[in-house]
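Margin note: ligand = zinc ion.
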Amino acid sequence: MASISQSQLRSFKAALKEAKKPVALAGAGLSAASGIPTFRGAGGLWREHDALSLATPEAFSMDPSKVWQFYHYRRETCLRASPNSAHRCLAKLLSPSQRSKYLPSSGSLHLITQNVDGLSARAGTEIGEDHVTSGGILEMHGSLFRTVCTSCNDVRPNFESPISEGLRGTEDPSLEYRETPLEGLPRCENLTRWSRSIQPCRGLLRPGVVWFGESIPALDEIYEILEGCDLIMVLGTSSTVYPAAGFAGQVKMNGGRVAVFNLECGPQDRIHADWLFQGAVEELLPLALG
Ligand SMILES: CC(C)NC(=O)[C@H](Cc1c[nH]c2ccccc12)NC(=O)[C@H](CCCC/N=C(/NCCC(=O)O)S[C@H]1O[C@H](COP(=O)(O)OP(=O)(O)OC[C@H]2O[C@@H](n3cnc4c(N)ncnc43)[C@H](O)[C@@H]2O)[C@@H](O)[C@H]1O)NC(=O)OCc1ccccc1
Ligand SMILES: [Zn+2]
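Resulting structure:
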């Protein structure tokens, strides 16, 4: 069980109650207890590939079969997973009917997540609320459960399992890698006009995530949210990927305060943190909000 100083806990709880514009920034550590591999450490490898090397437009254009098998594997892992107590704590802070108990001074929290696993959204669904549409949750790196067509740019949610017949069974990493032919990869169903007939586009779909080298669509909205943020909770992130890695420093520069929840705290955390809660976020957050 994570041991944290009671005085730290008391002062953080008081700060949360006074916070006018609290923000939570989440990383892979938030979903670790749900069985979702993080990027650092053992979980960072898929087959023998470094996960981050597959999350690029270059990798997709060079080998869409490999990249789709990688994302199919992660979709199937997430579909079998469930939100954990940390996701559920955040859902309470996002809930119009529950949040005033925890956030009497602000009445609202923004959760900016780097995770594409959809588990924070699902914690909201569990209590009958949609925190993504309400703007409470910002999936800054996109979602595994959204597709974008590389021909007609159609964007839509997709929770199908498997997402295409050609990928069925490839999620089992113990099986020998076998290339999935292009026509077996996810294809666009968007109805488009072909001369006089209406037909499905059939363009190649790509996962609705932000790859390295691609800009963050909601970045302006995020900077607006960070503007005036007086308390940011940094939850289970190694703070190594930008621009997310710069948010805590930004809040600090604007006079806000920083609370870090992480199994191991990195150099940045030591510089910025007003509160450093070292331990498992799924244990610490219920304690901090209890
Ligand atoms: C590697 C890094 C140095 N590179 C970057 O940051 C790059 C380049 C760059 C931009 N600015 C820079 C400045 C300096 C240096 C480099 C750059 N950034 C980009 O390319 C970004 C895009 C970045 C987004 C990439 N997509 C992801 N994900 C979606 C896909 C997918 O998931 O497949 S990033 C992905 O990796 C990151 C992984 O980090 P974490 O989530 O923190 O996970 P990690 O495993 O590292 O750490 C887990 C932590 O949890 C802790 N933990 C574990 N268990 C628990 C537990 N139980 N409890 C508590 N803590 C726990 C561990 O101790 C650990 O600390 C996440 O962001 C995740 O979303 N785009 C862009 O800058 O575009 C520009 C631009 C501008 C205009 C026009 C064109 C382009
Ligand atoms: Zn299309």
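The chain has two domains: 1-36+83-141+215-290, 37-80+142-209.
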